[in-house]
Amino acid sequence: MVTWRTSDLRATTSETAPGAPLTPAAPVEFPLSLGEVWRAESPATPVPAVTGPTVVTAGGNEVQGRDPRTGDVRWRYARDLTLCTVAPIDTVPPQRLEVPRNVIALYGTDGGLLPAGDSRVGGGCSEATSLDGGTGARAAARHLDSEFGTRLFGDGDHVTSTGARFVINMRSDLVTASYYGTRPTIVWSRPNLRKGCAYGSMGLWGGRAGVIERCPGEAGDRLTVYRVQTAPGKDPDEVEEVFSLLTGPSARLVAMTDSHIAIALPDPARVVVFDQAGQQVGEYPVQVPDGELRADPPGRVVSGFLGGSAFYWHTGTVTVALSRDDLRPLWRVEGALGAGVEFAGRLLVPRAGELAVVDPVSGAVGGRFPVDRGDHTGPVAMSTIGPIVLEQRGSTLVALR
Fold this sequence. Notes:
This protein is mostly beta strands and 401 residues long. It is 1% helix and 48% strand. The strands form eight sheets. A five-stranded antiparallel sheet has the order 1-6-5-4-3, with no helix packed on it. The longest helix has 4 residues. It is globular, with a radius of gyration of 21 Å. It starts with a helix and ends with a strand.
């Protein structure tokens, strides 16, 4: 009885749905208009969280699974802890263009790891729970040492928790694959890792993780790529480095694919592309304000996604399309509030007062949907599920149809 009274189970609320509904079908024809059908507060989702047949919203201490058509809540999960972040996690490779089936909720606790320079004592984002998107049933749970401000993102096989000095790579079932950086409790000395480095933007693809490092005594930033999954029998601390090289200052990791890695550098603004061995294979100027490339992206993950025709990267005011084959810049859309989303064979790019309808091959703007976002003028992250277009406007999620 004493154990139950003080257990995590007693402090957890789980209201599951009786079964998973069918995921709504994507539209066959492009719609003539888009208008708001529902909205909900969701401050713990930095991007729209679509998982299985469900749109997930989260804030405070509760995660909610909603019907994408109506916004009605189908399931709930809550704890007596504050949410740090919630993200859909792929359980299939993203190149198959299937909808992720699970969502990970990361809660804050005492005793976690703080970012470098943080003066607070204790605390971090340490309690991770994986939930089935269709029913809300708990699939897995793990104790982590993630920093405040962490972002979660995946590549179909693995999940990364970002951090200023500690990065955690897990399998999609939350089993630890590798650690990178300074652990809160040093288990053993790791001579193969650089010491005292701070981390900028990060990427993940095909079992490889990329990170921009800023290490003591080095004039520029460093791009390091390492294998996420350790060999059988090896400790997660034994990271296998694929390559590491110095770049210019203020480097930003933009995209990773099976064959290439792209970073962006300012002064002048340009994209530099490397192959899997770390050999530079291209350098391309981009018409992007230099100031947008000098700081790390929020959460240390660039705003962008891999679509059917290109990788779409949002710099702050510009959406740039990079070729899927070699990550060279193809075209750009100015005045963008986000990377956009592919919908019914076209690209929707959020701009002030509208959604621009863009040809994904040429970048030509072929139409506009007026959108009233009220007093929200900041970034807009997007996703879709069936005929529903989703916009994350700050702490509010809005569904359009």
